[in-house]
Design goal:
The chain is an alpha/beta fold. The chain is 34% helix and 14% strand. The strands form four sheets. The chain has a six-stranded mixed β-sheet with strand order 6-7-15-12-13-14, sandwiched between helices. The longest helix has 17 residues. Bound molecules: pyridoxal-5'-phosphate and the ligand N[C@@H](CCOP(=O)(O)O)C(=O)O. Homodimer. Keywords: Allosteric enzyme, Amino-acid biosynthesis, Chloroplast, Lyase, Plastid, Pyridoxal phosphate, S-adenosyl-L-methionine, Threonine biosynthesis, Transit peptide. Pathway: Amino-acid biosynthesis; L-threonine biosynthesis; L-threonine from L-aspartate: step 5/5.
Length: 527
Amino acid sequence: MASSLFPFNTSLSPKPDSLLRRPTRRNSSSPFTLVCSSATSDSAPSPVIDSSLPLGVHTHQFQDDSHRHRSVAVDVGHNFSAKYVPFGSGYDSSEWYSLDDIVYRSRSGGLLDVQHNMDALKKFDGAYWRNLFDSRVGKTTWPYGSGVWSKKEWVLPEIDSSDIVSAFEGNTNLFWAERFGKQFLGMNDLWVKHCGISHTGSFKDLGMTVLVSQVNRLRKMNRPVVGVGCASTGDTSAALSAYCAAAGIPSIVFLPADKISMAQLVQPIANGAFVLSMDTDFDGCMKLIREVTAELPIYLANSLNSLRLEGQKTAAIEILQQFDWEVPDWVIIPGGNLGNIYAFYKGFEMCKELGLVDKIPRLVCAQAANANPLYLYYKSGWEEFSPLKATTTFASAIQIGDPVSIDRAVFALQNSNGIVEEATEEELMDATAQADSTGMFICPHTGVALTALIKLRNRGIIGGSDRTVVVSTAHGLKFTQSKIDYHSRAISGMECRFANPPVEVKAEFGAVMDVLKEHLSRKSPKF
Ligand SMILES: Cc1ncc(COP(=O)(O)O)c(C=O)c1O
Ligand SMILES: N[C@@H](CCOP(=O)(O)O)C(=O)O
């Protein structure tokens, strides 16, 4: 469908890896100094102390010129800070970069990670953080009304609140899947975290608010960022274009032609992004955006950029919060480029390290069988990772064969006693239809996660009373074509066991009564 709207050709020629820009190394002995002078406070009128707020947090309020009711919290006397370090290193790593640097890879070409000054955060105990985060839920206080920015001290502690670009993302529904759990799985404590019920319809909003806010800050600092770009299977591009449009920042998106849903394609188009539709798959788009962002002052918005994961990790914290800080036994997450599984691990682990909870859940990463490089790696006993050519799947947003965050995913799974599962096309579509029949309206990726749950439950690995959370990553309304195909039994080679096609009937009383009686007697023998 994309190809009918946009030509495939691009004048951009691939550049060899050797031309990718490498970050400048910081002197290990140089003290870490904040780049931004406004790093520890917001520029606003003097505070009015609100004694109902937890220790150390004072608020002041003002009306800004958009008449948006805002309030800014000032954390008094803290030393909260964060920086980039090579993935796997700690805050004290000798190689590190300021978050105001434009850098996506370590000196050796490896992944980066955002590390927080945990000693500063540990000056406050678990109860303090629980109370602080709880006190911000359900308010419109800027920016804490956002589920991401309500954890600002753990996300981007040094950003000025006026630089934040937010749609008050997060705070999504944690739905008790009572009927699905009891009817299909003999489970009474099954929950679905609906991260897709969000501004642009997917969990990507959680990361994008952080990334675009940081870009907003960099542009105000006159750093050379002319736009923000991503490769996408449809959700990252939707989030990027919306947040950039809100901030007046140009966005550029690389999409694999004919591989994303129409609803996803129209999102960046409507939000004014520069959309390039390419005759390749996601992995091809990803390679190109990495090459292009190494050459042009376009900031990279994919989860290779570890800033994104700082926002995404708040979904894990939110789950704990929604359970009154009780830890679920299992959390199941669909995986593609594999940033999100690590983001969840990081959120849970941070809560444990800072004393909000005393353990973390076991994580399950679920992949489509048609795009399963992590699953194959796991099955090999983590012996050998081979990128592959992912083939078409209804879970189109995870049709990825060469995930950039493979190392992050392995780390998360190994440190959470994790499991990887896979779902065939029939399994994921059946699971989606079953879930929908209990009142959900989930995306096929959530169907992949539910399939993993069904398999682990049937094998007795997940118990009937285990508290289990399935992460739903996108809104079902983005994927209506797959549901139409399923319910009209139009998928070749698929039985579509749970299809519920509409019945065509004459608009006559007798005809309507006949079909209703037949239907009711089938549904209820007592009728
Ligand atoms: C709807 C949806 N679910 C799951 C994923 C997988 O997330 P990740 O790439 O972080 O593994 C993606 C994107 O890749 C997505 O768009
Ligand atoms: N599903 C993603 C794929 C890219 O993932 P990212 O988290 O690295 O941006 C999308 O919607 O584009």
